[in-house]
Amino acid sequence: MSLAVSTSSSSRPSNGPSGHPSFLKNAWRIIVKKPGRLIGLGIIVLFALMAIFGPYLYPKQLPINPNAIYAPISWRYPLGTDFEGTSNLALIITGARYVLFAAAMAAVFTVVFGTALGLISGYYLGWTDSVIMRITDFILTIPGFPLLVVLSTVWNFGQPVAMGFVLGITGWGGLARAVRSQTLSLRERGFIEAARTLGLSPFHILFREILPNVGSYIAMNLLLAVTGSIYAEVGLFFLGVVPFQVNNWGVMLNLAVFSAGAMSSAQALPYLLSPLLALLILTLGVVLFLDAVDEIFNPRLKEA
Amino acid sequence: MKNILIRLAKRIVAGIVMVLVVASFTFFLVRMMPGNPVSAKYNELIMRGMTPVQAMDAVRVMYGFIPHQPLWQQYLHYIGQILHLNLGRSISYEGVPVLHIILNAAPWTIILVTTGLIASFIVGVLAGVIAAVKRSSPVGSAITLSGSIMHGIPQFVMGLFLAYVFTTIWALLPFGAPYNAALTPGFNGPFIMSLIRHAILPVATYALSSYGGWLLTMKSSVISVLGDDFILASEVRGIKASTRLRYIAHNAILPLFTIFALSIGFMFGGSLFIEDIFDYPGLGNLLLHAIDSRDYPLMSGAFLLITVAVIVANIVADFLYSVVDPRIRR
Amino acid sequence: MSANSLPTAPPAAGITIRGLEVVYTTGQGQIPAVNGINLDIVGGQITGIIGESGSGKSTLAMAMMNAVPHPGKIVKGSVIIDGVGNMMTLDKESQRRARGRHVGFVFQAAQNSLNPLTRIGHQVLDLGRSHNVKDLRALLRRAKELLERMGMDADRVLTSYQHELSGGMRQRVGIMFALVLDAQIVILDEPTTALDMLSQASVLEIVRSIQEERGLTIILITHDMGVVADLADRVIVMYGGELAEEGKTEDVLAHPQHPYTRGLIRAIPRISGNLDQAVALAGSPPDLQTFVQNACLFYDRCPERMAQCQNHRPPYEIAGPGRKVACFKVMAK
Q1: I need a labelling partner for B194 at 20 to 30 A (CA). Which of A91, B100, B242, C331 fits?
Q2: What are the boundaries of the region Disordered (chain A) (predicted)?
Q3: How far apart are CA B4 and CA C14, in angstroms?
């Protein structure tokens, strides 16, 4: 029993309101430890700023220039232009909002479904657990991406929230498993029984006692879900099965490969490379930053 | 052995239930589609001058259910048809049975996926062992890095990259189509060579994009086995290095069977991109074509077959796992 | 019999350890787990090595085989096994051959000392092949004999996987592995820690009877003074990676000289005695800070410390026939 109490009290400061300043300070200290982490954070912040302010930097209808179709890289067009003479950089910047917003929504949905179902499954066990785990197995087995493609026939992916929701619905299986097994191992350490004998409510036990202990998994999965969702949504647009938007990264890829012939004509190459570059830099940022997140949320690493 | 068979039977039953759930899902999906394609088709056929009975028959043959029946009757009829392996008739291929079309497409996908899977498994696992054993040397770090990078690159980017490098920059390999159309299909040398040459890039895309996953998993698995007591014990008993390596590999490879399940789904998902990029006539391409041309019976059928393939692969992986791990047999 | 077909080490082989130093590198610095130990293990006897957890006794055992697991490292010293040579300078292949063949080792975690995916019998064969045993059938017969002698259904055990055996059975299988190649020296690292009282007693009985029968050299590592008192001819007390005291078991038990040894003896409740009479050892085992200081390692916990003890480490010196001890107070007498 003393174990349960001491563990929960040691993890409390990281989410209690009074603990916030020190949590942020600690996080910052960990981030600046390695330059890679700072670069990662910088990249993420840059893209977040693009998503928030990008669309305000340009007119609603991006200017076209019939004289500069597939223009090469220049000061005026740092990433070249597309088939209408629109700046690729402008397309990428204004397109970031949909991509990132949808990915963020997807990550939130994934984490909410995955965590809630995993916690409930590991806490209640019995038939609740078997039902939830059956569904989880189902979600994990069903080929997710083809399912998305099929769903695109009925679902309107024009809104990032809608896209995020569907990505979340199809992607929570792995996290639910991980959270469940963590909950089970806490249970084995006598955690849940101890909290119950103290007369704490299930809600309190689940969200105040157990949740902080699976925080590292959730934080890691949040970021991994972001990259996974970015790939999935860009992939959907790349296949051309969802509504057409000129500044969408995936649509740009699709047009570059299948209409502009970027694979064989060097002229259209910048049009193909711009969205790829954006994707890869963003992924790199997330991967570099993950390292820091691991250390911030993983209590075992913290003590070392 | 008896326990293995019971486990296998349970898995198969669960798989069949899953297929039925997916079939039901596609049924309701088509029913709920905006503008209800089934009624729309029926109306179109009436307008073309068919009698209601003729039109109803034509629609029933295509979709496997009759538009004017109550929903539950349509559903039962549809499921009954599926159990008889009747997936309806394609719209875009002018009434060809869907089963016929997807069975023609399936081998392309299954061969590509299987080859890619086996290749990536072998290379990834070996590289994972090296990365684990030499984890403190530059060679080990380099191998691990290669795995992280391959793991991080999305399949479509990998496909585009390979296509660009090996067909545009260096025109080493052919691009698009599964074989040279000028050759006569059959069991002859030039045709088989052409098949292989056309398959290299798609297979490489599958293989490279799953190589990283195998490598990273195997690496961490080997590292955890290296820390196990029995490995130290075997060292202290003076067991030969080659035998110890066998112990390590055998124990470390087991957890990979669970990853296998996830990998299969991922590979078949990838077939959409890879077959699209390399213009390969497999299931993924078929699914995309069906969606493009609003050929819903074909779409349902292709999706169903992809699901079946993934489920079967899962069952096989689980069966192999229970054969190689004595602890399961209890 | 197979025993004759196997080349054996000369009877009653001993071990000579000189200046042995093993260091563990941790995040906070280097911990000397074994700090310059000189020790002679007498052949044909049972030597008990006793100490708290963290005293370096298990590390010492692994170092005798030159098999200290990472992050531990043998920095200097020599371990000369009679009939084998210096384990520190032998080539790798000869070292490997010596392990198992000349020196058998029963693991602290013998519960998990077997490959979970291979039948026990196959692992016996793997062991035989690793040591170039020609007659593998004879080896299996030998394994069966040993298992039966330890009261097990040998055929069943050999066709079993590890998970099909209980803890006590696995421990006995571990002993079988240490003996099946007719090793003359057997090191048992906490062989009974994870067992219930009944299994403990039977395992110890087996060790005793086999030792008597074959005149083996046995090194028994334990934290349990009772086990040492029951079995060992000689006892060696370790503290903080160094030797504190050694001597014949009855001498040491009857007249412990080092205050730490006295504490250890006082800490065990006599089977017949009252639990209240047991006095737990005060203080905590040495930490990194202790090793940096010049003081005697036991200084912080010693009830009889003197001024001298704070600035110098006591040398390990002869204190009677077959007795050695590292304590200024004892030397001053």
Answers
A1: B100
A2: 1-20
A3: 51
Written as six digits, the tokens of A257 are 């490969």
Q: Say if C295 is an interface residue toward chain B (CB within 8 Å).
A: no
Measure B148 CA to nearest chain A CA, in Å: 10
Mean model confidence pLDDT for chain A: 77
**What CATH number belongs to A26-58+81-296?**
1.10.3720.10
> β-strand C15-26 against C72-81: which pairing, if any?
antiparallel
How big is the CA angle at B79 (ends B75 and B81), to the nearest 5 degrees?
A: 115
Same-domain status, B138 and B173: yes
CA distance C72 to C30: 10
**Looking at this protein, which amino acid is placed at residue B107?**
P
| Option in C69, C116, C129 nearest B232 (CB) | C69
CB contact under 8 A, B230 and C118: no
Assigned token pair, C190: 């906490």
CATH number of C19's domain: 3.40.50.300
CA-closest candidate to residue C243, choices C257, C227, C224: C257
Which DSSP state fits A181?
Answer: H
CATH number at residue B110: 1.10.3720.10
Per-residue pLDDT, averaged over B199-216, amounts to 88
d(CA B165, CA A252): 20
Report CA-CA distances (Å) from B189 to B107, B115, B198, C89. 20, 20, 14, 61
Number of domains within chain C:
1
Whether A256 contacts A18, CB under 8 Å: no
| pLDDT (mean) for C93-100 | 90
Q: Which residues of B touch A147 (CB under 8 A)?
A: 303
In a domain, B95, yes or no: no
Q: Domain range spanning residue B35?
A: 2-83
Q: Answer yes or no: is C244 within a domain.
A: yes
Residue B92 within a domain: no
Q: Considering only residues 145 to 174 of chain A, which have any Cβ-Cβ distance to chain B shorter than 8 Å?
A: 145-147, 149-154, 174
Domain count, chain B: 2
Residue B104 inside a domain? The answer is yes
Single-letter residue type at A49? L
**pLDDT, tens digit, 9 for 90 and up, residues C102-150:** 999 988 766 678 898 899 999 999 999 999 989 999 999 999 999 998 8
The answer to whether residues B181 and B210 belong to one domain is: yes
Identity of residue C200: Q
Strands C234-239 and C242-248: what pairing?
antiparallel
Q: Answer yes or no: do B185 and B67 share one domain.
A: no
